[in-house]
């Protein structure tokens, strides 16, 4: 999983795509980190809402350094309602937990879930995340959608890496002890 959250644990403000807190950490350092992650990715995974927003952005953001990777990497959109996926190299998956469990066993590279709160909750409950990569923005939103809602199952994690950004952001990488 890869996400940017506020200090109080929100990945999104009070409405969909309210991501202003990302600007508090975005810069050369985080961009380099994101590019390094993308270069190791064999698959990107999104829920329907995140997929729709990401596809709308990345198909037009051709001059951003991440765009060639975002557009070329195979993608999965997990949705029971989406009838087509027009972003290149995208496959629709209906049963996320079952199909991603199989893909995880077959994959040799990193599979990243970006955003996708509902999907992430299902995958956390199923114990499918090997790692949680989180950038903590030095912002308190006070209200918003939490990355780990109250219904998230208990899971002990192991700190794999922690680094700070010059702008006050912190990147943490936790490994799952259940994998």
Count the beta strands. 10
Count of DSSP H/I helices: 5
Radius of gyration, whole Å: 16 Å
List the uncertain runs. Answer: none
Helix content: 25-40%
Could you say which structural class the secondary elements and strand pairing correspond to? alpha/beta
Topology:
Layout: E1 2-6, E2 10-12, H1 28-40, E3 41-47, H2 48-58, H3 67-72, E4 75-78, E5 90-93, H4 96-106, E6 110-113, H5 117-125, E7 131-137, E8 145-146, E9 157-164, E10 170-176
Parallel strand pairs: 1-7, 3-4, 3-6, 4-5
Antiparallel strand pairs: 2-8, 7-10, 9-10
If you had to describe this structure to a student in words, what would you say it looks like?
The protein has 179 residues and is of the alpha/beta class. The chain contains 5 helices and 10 strands, in the order E-E-H-E-H-H-E-E-H-E-H-E-E-E-E. The chain has helices at 28-40, 48-58, 67-72, 96-106, 117-125; strands spanning 2-6, 10-12, 41-47, 75-78, 90-93, 110-113, 131-137, 145-146, 157-164, 170-176. A hairpin with a 5-residue loop joins strand 9 (157-164) and strand 10 (170-176).
């Amino acid at each position: 999983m890869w996400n940017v959250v506020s200090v109080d644990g929100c990945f999104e403000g009070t409405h969909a795509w309210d991501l202003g807190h990302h600007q508090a950490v975005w810069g050369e350092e985080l961009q380099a980190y994101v590019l390094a992650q993308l270069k190791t990715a064999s698959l990107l995974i999104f829920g329907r809402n995140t997929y729709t927003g990401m596809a709308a952005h990345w198909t037009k953001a051709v001059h951003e350094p991440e765009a060639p990777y975002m557009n070329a990497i195979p993608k999965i959109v997990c949705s029971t309602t989406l009838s087509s996926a027009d972003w290149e190299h995208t496959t629709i998956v209906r049963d996320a937990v079952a199909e991603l469990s199989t893909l995880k066993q077959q994959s040799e590279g990193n599979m990243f879930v970006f955003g996708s709160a509902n999907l992430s909750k299902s995958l956390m409950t199923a114990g499918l995340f090997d790692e949680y990569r989180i950038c903590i923005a030095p912002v308190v939103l006070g209200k918003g959608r939490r990355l780990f809602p109250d219904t998230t199952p208990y899971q002990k994690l192991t700190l794999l890496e922690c680094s700070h950004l010059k702008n006050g952001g912190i990147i943490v990488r936790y490994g799952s002890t259940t994998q």
